[in-house]
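Researcher: Next sequence.
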Amino acid sequence: MVDIHSILAEHRGKPKHDDTQEMGARSQDHGPSTSEIPDIFFDKIIVDFKLSRIEILVLMYIYRRVWCFPNMHRTHGISQMMSHTEMAKNLGVAIEDVYSSLRKLEEYDFIRTIRAGQYFSRRFFSKELDDSFEQTYDDFEI
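Model: Next structure:
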């Protein structure tokens, strides 16, 4: 019977390439990070609202810009100005799909357009959920 240790001892791995520069550049661009998304999104919003994949991507993109990244308008739930073209590029979707998703998300009242590229987004996605979690927006009402 062949011993696993003898097999591993005889095994020759692939020759290693020096990818340290490439790996270093990649890790700087896409280092590990986290964003806090309330569980209510997974437990209620995804279940109760039949959002498409692109609508979820756009909603999460705006949500992260408002609530997860540094934002001086955070207490009001307003995003900084952003480019629709840049959003489409970052999400890897067509600009028309971004516009369609924005309209749909406004119909659900998850977001509201302040002006082109700037959005109001509730912390808990809907007015009812914000009220139940006692989230206010410094008397900012649309």
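Model: The first strand starts at residue 111 and ends at 115. The helical segments are 4-10, 20-29, 39-48, 53-68, 84-91, 95-107, 127-132.
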